Amino acid sequence: MPELPEVETVRRSLSPVILNQPIKSLNVYYERILQHVSPAQFRRQLTGSCFINLTRRGKYLIFQLDNDLEMVAHLRMTGRLIYFSDAKIELAKHTSAVFGFESGGELRFEDVRKFGTIDLVPRGKYEQIKGLSTLGVEPLSQEFTVEHLQELTRKRSAKIKGLLLDQTKIAGLGNIYADESLFMAGIHPEREAGSLNLRELKKLHQAIVEVLQEAIVGQGTTLRDYRTGYGREGSFQNKLQIYGKKGEKCPRCGVDLEYKKVAGRTSHFCPACQRE
Ligand SMILES: [Zn+2]
Question: Does residue 16 sit in the same domain as residue 121?
Fold first, then answer.
């Protein structure tokens, strides 16, 4: 599933090519991608208007329109938003929606598993998008400090891995970057969040920020479906230390890596570097 670095990469790659381009046509091939808006209404509101800004909050992409509406997209499991400068390129089999621009280019939402969503809301009115209106702190913002992380974990009996995945606490972390951050910080995924001391919280805070920043530089992690807004693979999969490395040795100490279900997700860790 695309996480913060992947969604941020899509944002950065699409912005230069789709902003301020009049939308000429709109085809919705999978109508259930639309939440709270009918295909006819969606087509009417978008055709003839432009996207004037593209921002990100957690794993959500927010396309600001020139008519006081915002289109909010979530890629979920396998969604991709890819810009094609040549509309003659054949549509992928699992294309859910296509935005055609007057310039001749197209923005296509492709989605094999079909869990991706698109909402259309008045600017800034996110109440009906529950996942967006309840998001926690942006981990690459000024607000995300060691003190903030300390506040989030204080007296919490939840496992730290589960807390990192909780979008209402920290926005945008998923299984990959939660595992990578905990490994970098030397913290076992099953540690009780409230048991982390200040030294550990500092290491974890630094690890989260560093791994996200480096993954954005690498244009995200492509294990299967994820592509940038230009349709290319990311490169951070080549820099993963621990995620998905079952059966391999710890890159730090050489011990066999382990994995187990924590907070409902398969979690990778080194039993020597991340003691329980
Ligand atoms: Zn190790």
Answer: yes
